[in-house]
Design a protein that fits this description.
Number of strands of chain A: 0
Order of helices and strands of chain A: HHHHHHHH
Distance between the termini of chain A: 30 Å
Largest sheet of chain B: 5 strands, mixed
Oligomer: heterodimer
Structural class of chain B: alpha+beta
Radius of gyration of chain A: 22 Å
Number of strands of chain B: 9
Helix content of chain A: over 70%
Order of helices and strands of chain B: HHHHHHEEEEEEEEE
Strand order of the largest sheet of chain B: 2-9-8-4-5
Shape of chain A: extended
Distance between the termini of chain B: 57 Å
Radius of gyration of chain B: 29 Å
Number of helices of chain B: 6
Structural class of chain A: mainly alpha
Strand content of chain B: 15-25%
Largest interface: A-B, 68 and 69 residues
Chain lengths: 206, 293
Amino acid sequence: MREGTGGRRKRKATAEEFRLLLKRLDPLEDRAWEIHDALRRKLIWFFESEFPLQAEELAEEALDRIARKLNSSEIRDVAEFAFGVARNLRRETSRHALIAARLAASGAISDSVQSGENPEQAAISRIDFDRKLACLKKCLLRLDAEERRLLSLYYPDDGSNLEERREALARELKISLGTLRTRIARLREQLEKCFENCEASRPPGS
Amino acid sequence: MENRDTLMRYILGDLDQGERERVERRYFVNDEAWAELQAAETDLIDSYVRGELSQKQREQFEKYFLASPRRRQRFEFARTKMAAASVPVEEPHRWWKMPMAFAGPYRMQVAVGIVILLAGIAVVTLIQDLRLRGQLSKMQAAERTRERQKDERQQGIANRKEARDLRDHGPAELLSQRLPTISLLLTPGQLRSSEGGSQLLPICTVPCTVLLLLKLEEDRFSSYEVLLRTVEGKENRRLAGLKSSQLPAAGPVVAVDLPSKLFRRGDYIATLSGNTSDGKAEVIDSFTFTVVR
């Protein structure tokens, strides 16, 4: 069954309404797209707690509603308004999902992380893990040596006294702990994106 | 600053409605709060992988947090990272640590002392030079990283712009826009050949739009992804969130519009994947074509 927002998706925002939204976010187009991108990610976060498989679709609908409303209403703070739209959409979707969930409850399939594996499943898991490991190594090698060193010091194999070790690392690099965290967060984001792309691009069975 | 424990509980779905909405409003309107939340998610995933969560938190993580495909992907990355052996760090060659054998008779001590002194001065000068080179190379590396991250961010934004355009206009409308458009209908698996049967894309000499129409045998996914590469494997563009369209003569297609400046003469492969309902990408087909000038 294809999931959706209860089949009540309203009219999508027109191109003109969308252009107006971008303009409200920022006068410079490139900067406006960056803010739009961040807003979209916040909306996905907002919805995925309750609707993990519909989060992207709901985020797109929320953006459409925001763009449509901006054209017709006097809105001072787009971020505050976006939150309000998202909250209302979540409530609407919850009401519809409640009935669907009751009907689907008996057929629900849980995706347990710790499933009891038979030997065939274990072999498949092993192949899958090897593939992931190959992707991770390939992505790590795209970083330079200094970046890899920084990551290995920030995420040591032995996870004891992590906070103190990270503070010591920041002192060694002569930067604040906050700056170190920001640098690591950027490197990690880069690695995760590379990892995701690598996994997605591998043909099945390789 | 939001309490880290509150953020963890929010991520695990453990807050009441009032507190939850308070946290959510905050990260919508405050960029710092947004950054804190993302960092808290990273820490939570790492804590789970290291086995540091309480029993209750572990259950919430497995039942609730991992329900999202995006979060599962992040978890897979963290789990792989934890299980992988460390990539050996390339240590720079520290030549000054090599043992220097000084042997000589007692009467040569003064001469040896002078030699050592001169060597010491040379070493200090060399160290300073190496340090400066190291700093320069770090700055260059940091600059390359910044450029790479900026390119990746802009590529992500460009992909979403293109997906938006296709959603708003559709391939038929794009074909009628003022910017010249070259379209190519691709069928899967057709071999590249210079004698007939090859899928050739003549590139225009002025800026134009290239519209690739990837023919679908069966339209069974709600959205699609396309990865465009050269045959050497160099990735040109990845587009996600694409929808299928119906062309009167060709049937269902996935349309991909790209700027002509992306293409050089040579062979390309477009790999089409469909997104399943649980967020995984399933490779459907590959389409090859040759760009000719």
